[in-house]
Amino acid sequence: MTLTAVDYRAPDAPAQFVESLRQTGFGVLKNHPIPEQLVERIYRDWQGFFDGENKTRYHFNRDTQDGFFPASVSEVAKGHSVKDLKEYFHYYPWGQCPAEHKADLADYYGQATTLAAELLGWVQQLGPDNVASGYAEPLPNMIEGSEKSLLRVLHYPPLNGDEAAGAIRAAAHEDINLLTILPAANARGLQVKGRDGQWLDVPCDFGTLIVNIGDMLQEASGGYFPSTTHRVVNPEGEAANQSRISLPLFLHPRPEVVLSERHTAHSYLMERLRELGVI
Ligand SMILES: O=C(O)CCC(=O)C(=O)O
Ligand SMILES: [Fe+2]
């Protein structure tokens, strides 16, 4: 399996991109419209947030899931027993956010959501008709006006050697949502599991955008688009002393959207959050 960056501006970009999603669950885009300077600024500003003490004032709200999740409550991936080595902030347009960071996050959230709707349009149009006819509504519609899409600012602190045995930055998992959009992080580490079981580094050149299928799109497409397992491995050598910041946007449908005969987006999310131990 290989992951090759698709040029967003190429005439056959939609076909290449959707084929990559089908084969690997992942698609990598270069020359996409999200401004690099905005992403760079968010990484820099949020490093300051995570390094500072103010973060404790934004402790997450258990009912609404917005705010700061310290490393001590960080997720335990499904099927794992140790916590991931990460802390993060959940931003929703309606949720809590430090005033000095709100403009950039809101800007990024808006631009990335618009791009996601376009990419979902590609998935809708270029997938087989029998898959598309199974969607309860067009894919871009599913996220339109959704208040559930979640921008996560993730900080993986430097490793200091006293981490729990077996703990890694993000244990192998699949994303719960419809589609995830993730600008290349400021350090390597993201890996995707191939059909052959081998782990493969996801290209992380600054300026590329990584997109992956989540469980909800796998569910809605009857398994045609795979929600692929991925993880973030610990750095070694010099890199172990450095933080890693990443910025996944998890696109969630409106709660009432029907995914399949078994599930609405809401029932599916509740089942998965319970498994994660965060509700
Ligand atoms: O930090 C990354 O590169 C990926 C994070 C991730 O997979 C997640 O938060 O679901
Ligand atoms: Fe993920």
From TrEMBL:
Top-rank taxon: Bacteria
Annotated ranges, domain Fe2OG dioxygenase: 146-253
Entry's EC annotation: 1.13.12.19, 1.14.20.7
GO annotation (BP), single: ethylene biosynthetic process
Single GO molecular function: metal ion binding
Catalysed reactions, semicolon-separated: 2-oxoglutarate + O2 + 2 H(+) = ethene + 3 CO2 + H2O; L-arginine + 2-oxoglutarate + O2 = guanidine + L-glutamate 5-semialdehyde + succinate + CO2
Pfam families: 2OG-FeII_Oxy, DIOX_N
Enzyme class: oxidoreductase
Keyword Disulfide bond: no
InterPro entries, per database record: DIOX_N, IPNS-like_FE2OG_OXY, IPNS-like_sf, Iron_ascorbate_oxido_reductase, Oxoglu/Fe-dep_dioxygenase_dom
Keywords assigned by UniProt, alphabetized: Ethylene biosynthesis, Iron, Metal-binding, Oxidoreductase
Cofactor: Fe(2+)
Family assignment from sequence similarity: Belongs to the iron/ascorbate-dependent oxidoreductase family.
Protein's recorded name: 2-oxoglutarate-dependent ethylene/succinate-forming enzyme
Organism annotation: Ferrimonas balearica (strain DSM 9799 / CCM 4581 / KCTC 23876 / PAT)
Record lineage: Bacteria, Pseudomonadati, Pseudomonadota, Gammaproteobacteria, Alteromonadales
